[in-house]
Amino acid sequence: MVKLALYQIFQSIDGEFNGFKGAGQLATFIRLSGCNLRCKWCDTAYAQGHKGTTICTAAQIARKIPKRTKVTITGGEPFVQRDGVEELVHRLLDKDCKISIETNGSLAIPLSLFADNCFFVRMIVDYKLPSSGMEQNMYPSGKPFINLRPFDVVKFVIADYSEYEYAKKIVHKMQTSCWESQRSPTIVFSPAITDQYHYIGWPANLAKSMIADQVPGIQYSLQIHKVLWPYATKER
Prior knowledge:
Low-confidence stretches: none
CATH superfamily: Aldolase class I
Strand order of the largest sheet: 3-1-2-4-5-6-7-8-9
Largest sheet: 9 strands, mixed
CATH architecture: Alpha-Beta Barrel
Radius of gyration: 17 Å
Number of domains: 1
Mean pLDDT: 89
């Protein structure tokens, strides 16, 4: 029986795009422990290792989730526990849950999660830019980006204007090498927040740059949970 390293289950809102109704939707979060990357601006470093972890089966976790719930599976990095996540997703689908999976863009997504019976599963896939220190782990012309659907999301966390220009080039590369135009996933640009207590400066300037450039097919995302709870150090 496959076991999962669970950090916490908690109630909150989806602070960013979730592949369904967008940011602000009420959700139950399943935060798994363990991550294969060490991003410089990671805001969940406490879940990178296994301190504070509870070892559970997928069935034990699923029993804690009410039927017809919006669920966000996050980490850490969920797909370091690939087999357990696959089982957990199918158990949650049996409970008529809608599921977003937040993944860091470095690991292949199981093909079973793109099957027709997984219509209510949405992938939220990061592309790590140079400011993260982890871009060497990205593969823009292949897994996990190649199989994404129009209702999945690719998210770029952008640190400054030069990285914004670079991100636009990466998006163009993906659009020409990864996806047919009608199957392109939702593309989201989000400002890296170095001071979450004051939302001035770069977050506004990124929005202004996107407005001025009229960037086609890309949406702006601000982390609502950080605006609402700027002093929170863990769950929001």
